[in-house]
Amino acid sequence: SSREETETEESMAAAVFSWTSRMARLAVLGLVLVACCLALASAEDYYKILGVSKSSSPAQIKRAYRKLAVELHPDKNGGDEEATAKFAEVNNAYEVLSDSDKRSVYDRYGEEGLKQQGGG
Q: Which end of the chain is more exposed for a tag (fewer CB within 10 A), N or C?
């Protein structure tokens, strides 16, 4: 009958709408996940900048920082722009990794977490 066909069509339309809406939500979640991964991948790795591991002690981090700071210090490199830029990166990395609160935020949320807290 015509009534049964209409009910079937409405039921199918509702199912398609429900499926489409779920797929759209999944697509949005996928895009958010990709954006987060790209942000993390492009973020500077403060541990790599200082040449230490994530499990390094504060003393090891300080030692690595001092060594790099001496090597890259602008006074020692006669205005070498690359060395000056690296010196700034080293200082920024040390500022975060030498502060236990900032380091904890960085370890959990990366650079973006520091920006949201107003540090780093």
A: N
